[in-house]
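One record is kept unedited as follows:
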Amino acid sequence: MTSPLAPLLDLPDVAEAGDRAREAVDAALRHRALRRQGGPLAAEVGLRSARCSAALESHEYGLEALRSGTVTDPVAQGALRLSAALDALAPRWTSAPRQVLARLHVLAASGSTDADLLGRPQLDHDGMGRLDALLALLPSGNRGVPAWLVAAVVHGELLALRPFPGPNGLVARAAARLTLISGGLDPRGLLAPEIGHLERQPEYVGCANSFATGTPDGVRAWLKHCAAATELAAAALTGIGDELLG
């Protein structure tokens, strides 16, 4: 069965943007640092992913402050917890997405949100229907649709719905990374699109708002932005690899 997302690839320039992102990712994942410094590289990517995701929630800290463990801000701590948990959660993302999504919120919002609300979507009937439809896409396989596009839709929908109280953006970006991992584009969890989103933050915010309108132009703008952010994540991975190899 063809994925219901397949027609999005026919929007102008979307498939081409995705092809460029895929080529950049493939090249980055061949970096020799993955063989020699795989563990440290993954740890550094995770730290930078968390820093950028927290910064996109207006909780910005330097890398060294986060690395030292001196930052106690609950939103930044939530971003760090999410980044550390993705590898363990990825195998269940497509088989039990509702449970994993709830877990993402618990990790993201503990300490910044009422404990009684953790992991509990706060949506009306229409919102719950839209969330159900989104999560139903994940186990179906999305045949013929690249992982980056599925991740972009997951990300955009969760930003638009804001299903949970507290830092929904952290949850949306973590869910997008899980989709890249489980979809096979980033099987080792080494891409941090948050780096690209932060680098192009005004575009990120504007395109997310455009996606929420549901218009073809709005969806197209968001998908192109997400492809570009994936390409920037690949460049960042290459840069981190170069740094580690000295």
